[in-house]
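Re-running Sigma-70 family RNA polymerase sigma factor to confirm reproducibility after the cluster update. Everything else is unchanged from the original entry.
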Amino acid sequence: MTLLEDARAGDEEAFMELFLQYRPIVFKLQGIYFVKDFDCDDWLQEGLIAFSESLTHYDEKIGVTLGAYFKRNFDNCIKSHLRKQAAYKRKSQTDAVPFETSLADEGCDVQFGLAQQVPAADEQLIVAEALEDLGDQLSPLEELAFTAYIVGHDFETIAAYANQSPKKVKLAYERARRKIIYHLKN
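Result of re-run:
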């Protein structure tokens, strides 16, 4: 029996030996695609699953090598993950409340990011403490740009609220970020 036949018959050692020959395909596609929250183990696990399915459905008569067949199946598997990610991203955007709406509802004291994903509590606490400790070192525009940006607003939206250009808001954000990083390191 060949290695391929042994793997198909359920020989786990033959399966792993065969997979190790085609494992570079997994690493190559890992270098091409970025799948959020996938580490090396996730890539290998998805590769094993796709390889198992490829081995089960592979037919030598179609004139394609097992490697090419596996690469196509694994590529399709990764693209499915990317489509799911994009669909989830679109879904979360439909739940967002436009900045102008929240500004109209709450006035000048709008609480940034209530309808959007909020950073973890410990991150919020660190940033809040850093902002308090900095006191007068941040200008009102720097504080507004930094606070609004970290909760998910883009520079154009913040600029419209602050009646400034997006470039000026981005520069204010960068200055605030540098000051906060310097403050946290010292």
